[in-house]
Design a protein that fits this description.
The protein is α+β, with helices and mostly antiparallel strands. Helix content is about 25%, strand content about 15%. The strands form two sheets. Strands 2-1-3-4 form a four-stranded mixed beta sheet, covered by helices on one side. It has a two-stranded antiparallel ribbon with strand order 5-6. The longest helix is centred in the N-terminal third of the chain and has 12 residues. The radius of gyration is 15 Å and the shape is globular. The two termini are about 20 Å apart.
Length: about 140
């Protein structure tokens, strides 16, 4: 089974999600999307898996979102994708893709919804918060 994470090692949420995936017994494919941005086709595919439009996956804080005036409602999805590909920091993270689905894992415990083995017990995040990862019903 392949688990992929679009990861930013500078992001605490992304680090927590990566640790949760590993605690589930999976060794994911780690894509540092800031160094290796997705292709247009892959980004569109993942947006479809997430059930999101480009604006839904855009990050504002710590990005050039406002200086690029990306809050303009007249920008098309294709234009927003162009910006995301030119400035991958605009892609919110972490995105996790598994055979069970895809999720923007914010908050980090959302990753449990798509992991093959979400029963990782109690997990302590970097900030000390404990996530109780009880067994979950399979996602249908």
């Amino acid at each position: 089974m392949t688990v992929t994470i679009w990861h930013n090692p500078s992001c605490g949420t992304s680090r927590n999600v990566l640790a949760m995936i590993r605690a589930s017994g999976e060794e994911p494919e780690v894509v540092q999307y800031l160094k290796t941005p997705p292709s247009r086709e892959r980004l569109k595919e993942v947006l479809g898996l997430l059930g999101m439009r480009p604006r839904d996956l855009m990050r504002e804080r710590g990005t050039p979102y406002h200086e690029l005036k990306l809050d303009d409602p007249d920008l098309s999805d294709n234009q927003l994708i162009d910006f995301m590909l030119s400035h991958p920091i605009l892609i919110n993270r972490p995105v996790v893709i598994t055979p069970r689905g895809a999720v923007l894992a914010r908050p980090s415990e959302k990753v449990l919804d798509v992991l093959p083995n979400p029963d990782i017990g109690d997990f302590t995040k970097e900030d000390g918060e404990v996530v109780s990862a009880r067994p979950r019903a399979p996602k249908t």
